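Fig. S4 source data, part A: sequence.
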Amino acid sequence: MRNPPLSNPQIGADGALTHLLSTEGLPREILLNILDTASSFLEVSDRDVKKVPLLRGKSVFNLFFENSTRTRTTFEIAAKRLSADVINLDVARSSTSKGETLLDTIDNLVSMHADMFVVRHISSGAPHLIAEHLNRLGRSDIHVINAGDGRHAHPTQGLLDVFTVRHYKKDFSGLKVAIVGDILHSRVARSNIHALNTLGVAEIRVIGPQTLLPAAMETMGVSVCPDLRAGVSDCDVIIMLRLQNERMNGAFLPSAREYFKCYGLTPEVLAYARPDAIVMHPGPMNRGTEIDSEVADGPQSVILKQVTFGIAVRMAVMSLLAGN
């Protein structure tokens, strides 16, 4: 008998994580468990232990229907460090490019004894569709990780961002966080906002031009600041976002130069934040458009550490999904 669709397909009947599709709706306990598990993997890595056998014998399929060298590479490294067999689907030559449906492709890969799918897709909701399909098939043993879907969510990026915040700030309570840039097209911003609110930060400010801010942002538990200097004032964390030019239809900005003048993070603007504020960016950065090189390479930047932490966080997610 097939299982009915779940209202939250990423949480199993026992309350455990069965897929990672979004940070929205994830209980605080699960978020903290992922962060704590990632910390343990970071400690193992610091001891120069390159591999652990937690996913030995498991097959992880990377299904990237949208380009992302950084995310795919960190997922591949994470899976291999867990001793999994990693299969990268060649999307340019995949059967979906020849007319096969996404779910038919999934059915064929299930027949090849897949244990986990890491899915990046240009369409919002694609990973949810796959997870619900697997549930209908009764395949609770196969797990889906959303590696970014349209404008919707990028949960592992959100998790590595909050991991970075906790690493440097220790405690979420009392923190003021500024998220700056193209909020409208950013799945990272949404994932960060949901995770940070669940973890109890004091204030989240979203900053950007009106054309790049979704309507009714306040309903997500944030305050909207059109002015960059006022927005970053006294903040503990500043998360800069990339302009998502590939998702923009029409002219949202007069020019990149004008954008940098109003919303680029320079040393002068950073001085409005707290002296110990950290600067983050999910990458890839557009220097001179979103962030000045002096800030990106400066002492308050933790951008490269985010990449390192991303491997540990993705190891944690895959390990927990596999039941470890």
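Fig. S4 source data, part B ends here. The first helix runs from residue 28 to 46.
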